[in-house]
C-alpha cells in the first residue's frame, strides 16, 4: 500500500524504499518534505538535509515531527505511512477540482457502511448521546491515538475498531484468558492458494480470511456451548448389554 | 451392450497423462458426456484386464467391467461434466463402486439413481483420535480388542446394546446425529466434525417402508459384516505435519480408532424398495438406460423425491449408528485405561460418507450450478475455504478418511482446489476390490488369512471367521497405489498414514 502511495506521489524509486534502514528512511522523509509537504522554508530544512550526520538529522526530525503535528507513532512504518498520507492530502488540496471525476466504483457502498455503524452505535447509546457532537468526535480521536488505532475519516468506524481492541485485549475476559500454547504456524504457508503471483493481494487476503475463520470459530464455539447446556437437560445415555447379540 | 473385440474397444480409451484416462463418446451408446478414470500403471493393468476378459467371446454373467459402467453412467439423462472413475473403482450394481457423477438439478430430465448411491447408504468412515501412544496400547491390545468386541456387536444378525423403541427410531431417522446429541451419546464437537453436521435435513421417515424400519431397529449401534470394521490404528507416517496437527495428530505412534460402517439392513431395504418404484417410473417417463441395473427416476418426480427423502433418513441412520459406536468405543477405552474419554482426548477427527447423493453447488463451464452429486465408493474432498467444511479445517482442506483393507494400512488425505475443479471435489474411498467375494472365498483359506494377521502382530476378533477371506488383503487392490494415484493426480493430498494393531470385524 505504501508503495502504491509513493508511486502516486511520484517517488522515483517507490519499490526500493527499505524501511529497515534509518538512512533510507531519512532520505524518504527529506524527499517528502522537499517535494510535497514543504512545511519549512528551504533554509529551515538544513538539519533534515544533513543525511551524512545522522545525529543532527535525528534532532531535526524530532522537531519536524512536532511541527508537523504528527501523532506519536512508535515505528518508522507508521510514521512514514502517516507522512505519506499527509503529503497526499496536501497534494489533493492544491487542486481538488482535478480529482473531481475520480470516484470509487461503488460510492454507495462506503456510505452504507458508515450509515450502518452509525445506526448501530446510536442504538447502543440509546440516542442519548449525539455521536456527531464535536466533543464526542474529539474523544474518539483521543482514544484512538491512545490505543494506536489507525485513523479513519469516519470516527464511528474508528470507534468500532476501538471497541474490538478493548474487548479482545483489555477487557476483563481477555485478561483472564489463558495464553495460547502450541507452536505457531506461519499463516502464509497453508494448503490454500490465494494469489501466488501477487503478494500485494495475497497478504491482506490471508489476514482477512484468518479474521473470518476466527469469527466463525467463535460462532461455532457458542453453538457447541448451547448444545452442551441443552444436553445437561436432555442427555440420558443408556446401554443394556443383555440386548446385545454378536452375529454368526 | 456393444460387443467389440478388445483392440476395437481400446480405440475409445485415451491416456491423457500418467494418472488419467479419457473414455470417448461412443464407447457405449448414447453417452451424453465423456468418461474419465484415474489409475497408475499397476491399477491400469487391472482395469484393462477386466475389460479384456469381458471381451472374450462367450463371457457372460457377473457385473460389467468398471470402464463400461463409467460409460453407461455417462449416458444417463442430465449428467454434467464427466462420469468419473476413481482409482479404487470396481464393478458394482449399476454404477461401479468408485464412480461419481453429477446431475444438473435445473434440468427437468435429470435423474437420481439408487445404484449411484449403493445399497449401504451413507456407508462411511469415522476417525477418533486419542492422546495414547503405541507403547501405552501395545501391552493391552488383546484386552482392548476384546473389550471393543464386547461393546460393539458385529456380524450378520448382530443386535445393538443401546435400548431403542420404534419411536426412538423415528426420531433418530429424522434428526440424525442431533438425536445422539440430545440423548447424550456424543459430544457437541463430534457434530461439528462430521459431513453435513451429521444430519440431512431433507430426511422424511414417512417415506421409509415398515420393512426397512423393522430391519433397522435392532441393528442400530452394530458394526455389521462385510468390509465393515473397527480398527485401533497407530500413526505410521505424517506427510503434512501442519494439517496433521490441525487434526490433533502430533507424532508418529499416536493411537487412533477408525470405525467403518453404514446403515446396515435399513439402508439396504430403502435401496431395494426404491429400485422397485423406479422401474415403474422409468416405464412411465420413458427413460432409457444402457443397463437395467441403472434404474433411476427424474429428480423432480414423486419417485425421485421419495427416494431422496428416504435416502436422507438412511443417511441419518448411519450417522446415529456410527455415533453410537463412537460412544461404545469411548466407553471401552475409558474402562480399559481407567479414565474418562475426555482425558483420553477422544475427539472425532472427521466423519466421511462414501455412499451418498447430495445437492451441491459447483462451477461448471464457468457458471455456478446446483447439482445432485452421486458419490458411490467415493469420498467428498472439498478444498480449503469451502463453506461446507468445518471451521477447524478451513485452512487445511477437508480431511478425507480412506480405510484400507483388513491388516494393511489406512490414510488421511485432504481436499484440494484441483479436485474441486476436476472431480467435483471427490476422491477415492478405500482399496477397492480386485477379486470378487466368491472368487476370494474359493481362492483363499480363512485360517491362513487369520494366521497371517497374527504374525504381523495384529489382534483380531471376528464374528464370522468363514467370511474373513472375502476381506483378505489379497482380495483387494493395494490401498497405497490408490492413494498415491489420487495424490499424484492432485485430486487430494496425502496427510497421514496409519497401520492397524487391532481389528474388530463382522
Automatic annotation (TrEMBL), chain A:
InterPro entries, per the entry: RTRAF (IPR019265)
UniProt name for this protein: RNA transcription, translation and transport factor protein
Gene name of the record: Dvir\GJ24590
TrEMBL record, chain B:
Needed co-factor(s): Mn(2+)
Gene Ontology CC terms: nucleus; tRNA-splicing ligase complex
EC numbers: 6.5.1.8
PROSITE patterns associated with the record: UPF0027
Binding site for GMP: 227-231, 354-355, 403-406, 410, 429-432, 505
Primary role: Catalytic subunit of the tRNA-splicing ligase complex that acts by directly joining spliced tRNA halves to mature-sized tRNAs by incorporating the precursor-derived splice junction phosphate into the mature tRNA as a canonical 3',5'-phosphodiester. May act as an RNA ligase with broad substrate specificity, and may function toward other RNAs.
UniProt-recorded name of the protein: RNA-splicing ligase RtcB homolog
InterPro entries: RtcB, RtcB-like_sf, RtcB_euk
Listed PANTHER family: RNA-SPLICING LIGASE RTCB HOMOLOG (PTHR11118:SF1)
GO molecular function, one term: metal ion binding
Active site positions, chain numbering: 429 (gmp-histidine intermediate)
